Amino acid sequence: MTVIKQDDFIQSIQDALQHISYFHPVDYIKALGAAYDVEQGPAAKDAIAQILTNSRMCAEGHRPLCQDTGIVVVFLKVGMNVKWETAMSVTDMVNEGVRRAYLQPDNVLRASIVSDPAFTRKNTRDNTPAVVHYELVPGDTVEVKLAAKGGGSENKSKFAMLNPTDDLVDWVLKTVPTMGAGWCPPGMLGIGIGGSAEKAMMLAKESLMESIDMTQLKARGPKTRMEELRIELFDKVNALGIGAQGLGGLSTVLDVKIMDYPTHAASKPVAMIPNCAATRHAHFTLDGSGAAHLPIPKLSDWPDVTWVPDLSAKSVNLDTLTPAETRTWKAGDRLLLNGKMLTGRDAAHKRIAEIFAKGESLPAGVDFTNRVIYYVGPVDPVRDEVVGPAGPTTATRMDKFTEMMLAKTGLIGMIGKSERGPMGLEAIRKHRAVYLMAVGGAAYLVAKAIRHSRVVAFQDLGMEAVYEFDVENMPVTVAVDSEGGNVHETGPKEWQEKIRSLPVLT
Q1: pTM of the predicted model over 0.85
Q2: Which uninterrupted H or E stretch holds 21?
Q3: Domains contained in the chain, CATH given
Q4: Most buried residue, 28, 159, 162, 244, by CB count within 10 Å?
Q5: In this structure, are strands 434-437 and 413-416 parallel, antiparallel, or unpaired?
């Protein structure tokens, strides 16, 4: 009988979460490298170069691929012959592993989990609890599939109860464009078909634990109808032209994974969950011989791609920025930002709204006049860092605050990831402001552009506090200009048309 010891199980969870925080799976690295080689869209190619460069930097520096170090999801297959040597429940052991991993001093990970989700939303400070799924199976081992799932991609999850005769491909092709770019493509799509509502969602999530193998599948040809469906969806989703970061291009997905389960004759539950550019998952088996050891990728596994600032990019001094200058920028322009900016995301915007509602003034040090705000919740620094990985968060969540910020604070620009929604776009156009896009999935690379960081307000909000960053050559793209030009509208449309004329993709 296999005996799984408490310390071995906890250590395995801790080590795996640390491992996936800074090592991309090799299959993802190679797939993204291949996408870079064939990409023809300049903006998309630049974004992929940033993601690949960031990935290698994180592997070398053992720091998070993304500032959003995710919610931990674990799938356990527990052999029925296994004996546990522990006084804790298995879920408690998982959570202890999460706690130790996220508080590990040499690579602190961002705590993103909040309790009391409907009301106080208080941060648990150690990223617990995890979401744990169990299956009891014959055997004498414990199989662990583990992921750290970012909020930006998780928020784009989709579900539908289709009629039995409805076409799955049609639903996917109608639904993917509604997801926008907040899930940080290029990544993977996980699809679950059948079972019940909750089973379909679990199938979609578990499918994302599989390795990327679309290139190999297409090379040998499909052997089953499910493989035919995967290839069809892969080709047709990429033909939408959404591209890296939604900027328009050839690669929106690197793979499509599908798992199914028998369902009711009257039902066709379908779930779709994307995985972002910070694809993080691990798979190991415990057999009683000790803690798990995951293979360490070699630096030679990364393609020879190093992002450097575009020589044609405009250098911008944030300390002397004026509305007149921002109104000369056009959608698609690449900028290198220098100087001071303030940060703020969901909780900070909510608190600012509450302050204005009371007729009070903003705290000292929080002056947005002729400044830009960066939507970010950084990782805490370690060693000699000024700040930990500090990539952008999804900008659409701040749309409902945009009119307030532009009308009442003197703010003239915003930085985030992905597109803006109708409410945000209306406010930007009304006030002739600008929205700048940083690359999601390049958090460590962005952090290297931050030369100084200090909290100026709302310290109790943790990573959601308002910081002041002093940046040097921080790369951004003008996503929405003061006239309303919008690369997230024009880019995919342009590339959808171009893709139709490419024989290899038709």
Answers
A1: yes
A2: helix 6-22
A3: 3-287 (no CATH), 314-491 (3.20.130.10)
A4: 244
A5: parallel
